[in-house]
Amino acid sequence: MTADYLIGEVGRADTLNRRDRAQAIKDAIGIDDVAEALGSRLQPHAEGWLADCPDCKGEVTAKISAHGEHFHCTACRGAGDVIGYVRAARGTGFGEACRWLEGRIEGKAGACDKTGELFG
pLDDT tens digits for 6-31? Predict the structure, then answer.
């Protein structure tokens, strides 16, 4: 299994464990990109963006950090990282959220082949 977005970090993608793989996903894609892909309307905010909350489905209640690393909803207090955002928005578990994100990264980088071995 080779995923080019992972290769500079560790050398070989197939040597990564679940934690390293999840961190590589978080490093490769921000919540802002994911929120847009999931149909959320992003609005500029002083500290980043405002977006629809994936937990309570509140419109433009989730604050996304300037670097797209975390979100926090002002309505329901839901919070998390990019994997948590996808889990809440799609109603999936950790592994499925990671596979979905890897697919998004593949679309951006055009470089992943077999994904899901660690999250399957």
Answer: 444 444 455 568 889 899 999 999 99
The rounded percent of the chain whose pLDDT value lies above 70 is 76
How many residues can be counted in the chain? 120
**Domain boundaries, position 25:** 4-109
The count of structural domains within the chain is 1
Strand order in the sheet with 79-80: 43-45, 48-51, 62-65, 71-73, 79-80
User: Global pTM?
Assistant: 0.74
Distance CA 39, CA 101 (A): 15
Report the b/e string of 42-65 with b at 16+ CB within 10 A.
beeeeebbbbbbbbeebebbbbbb
Is residue 68 in a domain? Answer: yes
